[in-house]
């Protein structure tokens, strides 16, 4: 009888834990999506020209209400860049915002 109670307790704890985990994952995805809702998954490709920096490139693509530092950060994230160093001929993905034609 004691083993049966322990088994029921274990199953109950397991079920509650799975429920909490499922809700946590769902909420995390929901928060991430709403936080990044401004940006779509559409990108424009920019080929780096000699002498260009991420700052120069960002100035070309930023919207009037967008902080250029935010765009540089998003470009680095989209391209998995560890630094701001880029090379001529490198193809850089530029995240499009909803305002400039992103979905």
Short descriptors:
single chain, 103 residues, alpha+beta, Membrane-bound Lytic Murein Transglycosylase D, Chain A, two-stranded antiparallel sheet, 52% helix, rod-shaped, transmembrane helix
Give me the secondary-structure topology:
Elements: H1 2-35, E1 39-47, H2 54-61, H3 68-79, E2 91-97
Antiparallel strand pairs: 1-2
Helix pairs in contact: 2-3
How many DSSP-defined strands? 2
H/E topology pattern: HEHHE
Principal-axes shape call: rod-shaped
Strand portion: 15-25%
Assigned CATH class of the largest domain:
Alpha Beta
- Largest β-sheet summary: 2 strands, antiparallel
| Count of helix runs | 3
* Low-confidence regions: none
- Our Rg estimate from Cα atoms comes to 23 Å
Task: Compute the average pLDDT.
Answer: 80
- CATH topology assignment of the largest domain: Membrane-bound Lytic Murein Transglycosylase D, Chain A
InterPro entries: LysM, LysM_dom_sf
Protein name: LysM domain-containing protein
Domain LysM: 44-94
Keywords: Membrane, Transmembrane, Transmembrane helix
